[in-house]
Amino acid sequence: xxxxxxxxxxxxxxxxxxxxxxxxxxxxxxxxxxxxxxxxxxxxxxxxxxxxxxxxxxxxxxxxxxxxxxxxxxxxxxxxxxxxxxxxxxxxxxxxxxxxxxxxxxxx
Amino acid sequence: xxxxxxxxxxxxxxxxxxxxxxxxxxxxxxxxxxxxxxxxxxxxxxxxxxxxxxxxxxxxxxxxxxxxxxxxxxxxxxxxxxxxxxxxxxxxxxxxxxxxxxxxxxxxxxxxxxxxxxxxxxxxxxxxxxxxxxxxxxxxxxxxxxxxxxxxxxxxxxxxxxxxxxxxxxxxxxxxxxxxxxxxxxxxxxxxxxxxxxxxxxxxxxxxxxxxxxxxxxxxxxxxxxxxxxxxxxxxxxxxxxxxxxxxxx
Lengths: 108, 250
Prior knowledge:
Chain A has one domain (about 5-105): 3 helical TM bundles of succinate and fumarate reductases (Up-down Bundle). Helix content of chain A is about 85%, strand content about 0%. Chain A has 5 helices and no strands. In chain A, helix 1 packs across helix 4 (about 50-80) and helix 4 (about 50-80) packs antiparallel against helix 5 (about 85-105). The longest helix of chain A is centred in the middle third of the chain and has 29 residues, at about 50-80. Chain B has 2 domains: about 1-100, Roll (Ubiquitin-like (UB roll)), CATH 3.10.20; about 105-240, Alpha-helical ferredoxin (Fumarate Reductase Iron-sulfur Protein, Chain B, domain 2). Chain B has 11 helices and 7 strands. In chain B, the strands form 2 sheets. A 5-stranded mixed β-sheet of chain B has the order 2-1-5-3-4. Chain B has a two-stranded antiparallel ribbon with strand order 6-7. Chains A and B meet through helix 1 of A and helix 10 of B.
């Protein structure tokens, strides 16, 4: 894959994470009651019953992890490490994203 | 006239090198290159340095002067204080004393296809008419055309120092210069060459290349423009296309 394609993914996931986070925070801060109420377990659970919000948080998790792992890749590039490190990072990224997504879906 | 101390690094690739002191009388107009040539003539005939035009056109006399990459012929001793420390450029191998090994630098320079590739190869070899450019078309690449390949930008670049495979600011600048030329038709090829982690995406925009360039070229700007071109290659090709038709046959 060309480096510019990877860079487009970095930009796209960064912008998507920013937008999704903005929507998430807007929903948290624009809800009824005070902040303690809006961040309480019961209120968050009720929000997650909304499939749109559920998908939004799932998407935020995926794009944030993708963006973060691209950042780690860049750090490895700067460190001039061998190819094995990049292969290991790809495996860690795929596994950790899958596990976290599974945990998110199975516990909500 | 006043006397200044030249501290010159004398070394070969095989040893660590050492600084040697040379007192020298200079006037307000004496350049570092003139000082070095006088030292070689009067004090140390073994001193090795590379130079040619003595007027900032050939780019041969690049070296580190008081810690900063500069052309010796354009640097007046009167601007440097009582002590003048002269070392070979960093980021290159060494031939001897102040002469850097520039072969890898020129190999990278050549790797980006730094020539015009006309759409029609026959027309390129046997032109039938002039290929006129508008002032706007020339303006896209003119400042980048002033590069004299002295290597000061590569010597100042922190990425070139830490990543041997990084193509380097001079090569990327010339890649932009030809890619943005309306007479050139090989933008996709050239963009594919620089669109790598050791190409334009290796640059972290330190800007030191632009700071030290003796000809006022802005390699950092060229690299950022190249980044934009790799992200929008179709638009880049369209923008570099000629806006005026060629002249008719002569």
